[in-house]
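S2.1 Query sequence (Sel1 repeat family protein)
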Amino acid sequence: MKPIIVMATLVAGAALSSTANSKDLNKTGSNPQRQTSSGEVYTAINETLSDSLQRLKEGAESGNTDAQWQYGVALIRGYAGRTPNKPEGARWIRLAASAGNPIAQTALGHLYLIGEGVPLDYQEAHTWTSRAALQGHVPAQTRLASMFRDGIGTETNRAEQLKWLEEAARQGDSESQYLAAMQLLLGDGVQKDIRKAIHWLNLATTQGNANAQATLASLYFKGAEVPANRGEALRLAELSAAQNNAMGMQTLAIILLTDKDKEPDIDRAKSLLRRSAILLREDPEALIDKVMRITGHRQ
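Output structure tokens follow.
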């Protein structure tokens, strides 16, 4: 069932329609006919949203767990121009979660995590998130990893953090692949495992994860954990920088400034460093000066 998606699309359409009508009125002055037309559009949209919500409610009442959690979300958010009813929305989500729906379990865990429609309760958040994670739901697995990292609803456990990151990573989640790689690469609360870290970085890089591309580029450039490969470092840094990744841009700048086979591209390197600094909210000139000095270029 996808009525929520339909409703969200219609809401976005209504907002765009409102903007367009406002611009038209500004151009031509007050136009009663246009105002009436706009009112008719809103009426039609609200009727469609109400119909979708009613169908969703009927599905929820019939025991469809997907309809139950979606109806619960609709009530919490206040779709179809209705006043949000967070406790009632949470009740429907709980029904679906109790029946074993992993998306509903993840949603209920989130509600407990932020205290929306239910009392703030980190242990309950951990319990429901764990149930969804055990069913293989990737968003629950990544959230559970964060909860073990930060000790939310449980004791801090970095080994469990890695376990759940790798569970999500095996299902192809590129951010989990990157995060697992970094934990293994740094030995952050777990035993260092460079081989496995590179494995996860390669998988994340293949999927276009900009952080993974930048990290692997840096490793190939330094030639410490992996054999040095300047060509591969340059390729990966270019890919990462093309996605406006700050670390990727800095790595690419350093590679360009240390090219011994041709004249260093100082102008491009400075441009990359400037963009990186802006993204990181750092002083561009200070970063440029620092990198120029460590690469042997005097300002």
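The mean pLDDT is 87. Residues 1-98 form one domain.
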